[in-house]
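ok new one. same drill as before - structure tokens go in, u give me an amino acid for every spot. 336 of them this time. try not to just spam alanines like last time pls lmao
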């Protein structure tokens, strides 16, 4: 036992060291208390491994178990993530596992976890962007009659927004590189929802901003240039709202202007294509006939950009205030 504790200390494992025979006779509650303060269990039988895994799961831990022999199979099956050795592992172990290391290298697990966290992160980014865009579009279309306005979009314009923004730009969120510090976060609960209440409230805020900006632009355009001008201005503003909103989707908590701002080249190519295509739709004669648009002046474009960027600026301001409040709490906690 002392030798096991010494090896644990040499490896930097903080906690107690126990042997499998000490698990025998303990009820599940006592075992749960023991595993919480233990770093190493040595000389454990298959039933011990299984009970240790169950005790950890009962305390809300996400449990990974590695093994290569037949006696590891029950614990591998019980764990949240069973990891089997692909070279030295038995067929029974591989069947019981959820992950097989083809190179038998434990370092591969770290890479797999990072890849999995990155994929999940990117799924959340995609969902946040798509939902906020759809909420903005729905609120704009439904809100127009409430304010005595005509619908600011034609059917083909709505289809255009879905094609150019919900297409390539949204899909490039799926190839975002891993964010800084992604491996420092604790494991996510298996019951964690993608759409939490707080997240939905933020998406509603983005949707309300888009709807208010688009309807305000439409009303202003109708008063200063007529129906066709108002529709074009509102349509362009809504497309640009999506341009800026995608940066909100990329960074939920920290600032969007971080070290990864320019790292996704595919996203920037997609956004550049969106802007070019929108210019074509607004200024090219044949496209104007299809999309019911008229040419805009540089001042009109500047107005649309200024209004559309509000969704990013407001979110950055919210994050900044949250950072100040959180920093203040941390400082107070440190001084107490």
């Amino acid at each position: 036992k002392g030798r096991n504790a010494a090896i644990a200390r040499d490896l930097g494992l903080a906690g107690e060291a126990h042997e499998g025979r000490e698990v025998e006779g303990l009820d599940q509650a006592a075992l749960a208390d023991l595993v919480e303060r233990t770093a190493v269990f040595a000389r454990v039988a298959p039933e011990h491994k299984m009970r240790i895994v169950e005790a950890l799961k009962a305390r809300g831990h996400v449990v990974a178990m590695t093994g290569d022999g037949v006696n590891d199979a029950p614990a591998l099956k019980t764990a949240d993530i069973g990891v089997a050795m692909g070279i030295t592992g038995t067929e029974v172990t591989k069947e019981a596992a959820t992950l097989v290391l083809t190179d038998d290298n434990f370092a591969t697990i770290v890479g797999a976890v990072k890849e999995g966290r990155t994929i999940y992160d990117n799924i959340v980014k995609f969902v946040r962007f798509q939902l906020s865009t759809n909420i903005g579009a729905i609120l704009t279309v439904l809100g127009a009659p409430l304010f005595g306005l005509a619908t600011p979009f034609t059917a083909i314009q709505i289809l255009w927004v879905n094609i150019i923004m919900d297409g390539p730009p949204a899909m490039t969120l799926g190839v975002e590189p891993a964010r800084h510090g992604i491996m420092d976060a604790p494991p996510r609960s298996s019951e964690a929802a993608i759409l939490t209440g707080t997240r939905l409230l933020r998406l509603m805020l983005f949707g309300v901003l888009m709807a208010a900006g688009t309807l305000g632009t439409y009303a202003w355009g109708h008063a200063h240039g007529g129906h066709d001008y108002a529709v074009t201005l509102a349509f362009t503003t809504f497309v640009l709202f999506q341009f800026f909103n995608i940066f909100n989707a990329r960074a939920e908590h920290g600032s969007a202007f971080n070290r990864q701002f320019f790292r996704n080249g595919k996203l920037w190519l997609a956004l550049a294509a969106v802007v070019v295509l929108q210019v074509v739709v607004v200024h090219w004669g044949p496209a104007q006939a299809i999309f019911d648009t008229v040419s805009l002046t540089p001042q009109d474009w500047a107005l649309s950009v200024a209004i559309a960027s509000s969704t990013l600026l407001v979110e950055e301001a919210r994050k900044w205030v949250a950072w100040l409040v959180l920093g203040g709490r941390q400082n107070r906690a440190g001084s107490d």
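The chain has two domains: 2-108, 119-335. and btw Confidence is low (pLDDT under 50) at residues 328-336.
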